[in-house]
Sequence to fold (363 residues):
Amino acid sequence: MDCWKVKKLQAQNFRNLGKDVFEFSTGINCIFGQNGNGKTNLLEAVYLLTNKKSFRKNTGYSQMINIEGASPEIIIQSAFENEAELIAYSLRMTDELEERYLNNVFEKSKTPSTSVFINPFDSYSFHTSSTFRRQWFDSHLALIDKEFKQVLGRFQKAIRFRNSVLGMGGRNVSAQLRAIDEQIAEYSSLLTRKRHEFLHDLNQHITPTFKAIFSEEHKLELDLDSMFVHWDAQKIFDFYRHQELIDIKAQVTQVGIHRDDFIFSFDGLNAFEFCSLGQQKMAFLSLIFAYIELFRYKFTSYPIVLIDDVSGELDSQRWKKLITYLETKKFQVLISTANENFRQELERIPESKKFFIEHGKLK
Ligand SMILES: Nc1ncnc2c1ncn2[C@@H]1O[C@H](COP(=O)(O)OP(=O)(O)O)[C@@H](O)[C@H]1O
Ligand SMILES: [Mg+2]
Fold:
């Protein structure tokens, strides 16, 4: 298995992180520290290296550059290793550019690995907001399917353009819509097919993953809530012709895959409506680890798993189960907490490496 793990990392001018060299274990790494000391920033540095963007929303170079730093560039140097090799990988960012180097050679697109980020608030957002769900599924599918990522970008641009045409009104709106809808119909058909297949693939893993983590039998299932499942581009185009007058009157695209939703059922009931917060959390964690299994199935390698700020939503028995699951798995984990009880729990893991962060520095 070609599984790249981050061995070393040193950041310069990245948020509040000092220039310490972090030397990670290829198994479980625990990151401790009080609130606001840089735990999430460290995970963000790993994510930025591997996924080429931050997991924080609306954040870019100007938020990431150290506000007190004298030099106007961020440099993150790292080493990644797999079973056979060690490679150097670095990132340099300025106001204008972003460059990456693999073994000191300029590298345009590839990163050594991919990271999956888990945040305690995501479970709640996931179960309460359809926009969040859509973004969650789309961004995770984009990580494993380049064509999906490209077409989704084009679709979003086309929908924005369609809405601006509708917003402006005027005489030849209808002709303009036809031209845009040819593209939108193509994209919608492809994206819906890929979302549908993605859920099908996740469904293979999600029930067994729930059982593997929590040793309980529950049937978990994901479904796509969309009109356009199994529709071809022509049928979608024709639909938009019927919809034209309604959209022109509303001045916005009323129906489309930009509003589709995802349904998560737990023993046949809608998890968003019927599950307790704890069950929702368990279901959400199972979804993420099912995704990680799917990732391995597709690429014969695991992503790096970043778990930020674990705290008390799960009872202690279930956290123990989750930790045992992590210990048996072959992926690299970076897990952070400011919670004292959970820290004690993590400190018991025999093979894990511990880091204490204070004001962005290793203690
Ligand atoms: N660009 C930046 N330059 C310097 N410090 C920053 C920057 N961005 C955020 N910080 C600081 O980082 C700290 C938050 O770090 P974070 O990793 O989120 O903390 P936590 O340990 O709670 O996860 C805050 O004190 C914040 O002021
Ligand atoms: Mg944090």
Observations:
- The pocket of magnesium ion (ligand 2) is lined by residues 39-40, 308-309 (CB under 6 Å).
